[in-house]
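Predict structure. Input: Ferrichrome ABC transporter permease, 322 residues.
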Amino acid sequence: MVIALVVLGLLLMLSVRYGSNSNTGSTVFNSLFHFDASSIDQRIIRHIRIPRIIGAMLIGAALAVSGALMQSVTKNPMADSGLLGINAGAAFMLTLCFTFFPKMSTLNTTAFSVVGAAISAGLVFAISSLKKSQMSPTILVLSGLAISAFFTAISEGIALIANLKQDLAFWHFGGISAVSWAQLERLGPWIIVGLVVVYLMSGNLNLLSLTDDSIKSLGKNITAIRLISLICVVILSGVSVSLVGNVAFVGLIIPHIAKFLVGTNNRKVIPMTILLGADLTVLADLIARTINPPQETPFGIIISIVGVPFFIYLARRDGNQL
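Output follows.
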């Protein structure tokens, strides 16, 4: 965890300094401690680069923890808010907001995003629970992919009809360039509170690996644990999507790496997941800004390049469990 924190610190320093245009160390220092509003470089660092870096940290942590929660609740190693269609539901509601209510405030669009995430999650779990037997991980993944494809297709159609296709393209693939201080002030606290709640209940998350009867025999309310977990997933995913768009695979990759490094105790897994999630998204954003200057690549594409092979690896490794 110390190494992950040190890596995050190094990535933050590199991200502040490098991008479509690079800055000297003195410019970065002055923008932080001796700000000169007349300097264009200092204004870029203070008002554009720093908020997007903080946004990347919060979003990475939120999506990674959402994946850890989904994997614990569903007992499915391939669960992730992006793969299970929750992000697509949030993105669908945001597309409606952009199309019919373009002047809606950030707080209201985020509320719609969270509602969309909740609707999508409800549909996925309803479809997966049609059989009376225990929920199958395979059916859960397939249901999520179907719901994701459904909401994505409707979103694309609405955007095409409303001539918003070009405007939404960058956002749909995960673009963090528009994150501002105003958005962080309104939405950042929701992510932080969600992460704190998840950490406080991390001890109870360990119980989800047991059978329902075993959990009840310990005097724990399994329904409440699962409900609070799903509420946290919906809030963390919905807020993240409202900020940067539909980004998948963060919640799939990071929890497995965290468990490999610190074991399966969620009291250690959750903090490690937060740090590694922030590491991944800050690194992906740095690569997205520097890989093809002055053009910017959506950082969601960078993550997907890593995520797809990891998904295939998990499918092969855990194929007997599905």
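The domain at 51-73+81-321 is CATH 1.10.3470.10 (ABC transporter involved in vitamin B12 uptake, BtuC).
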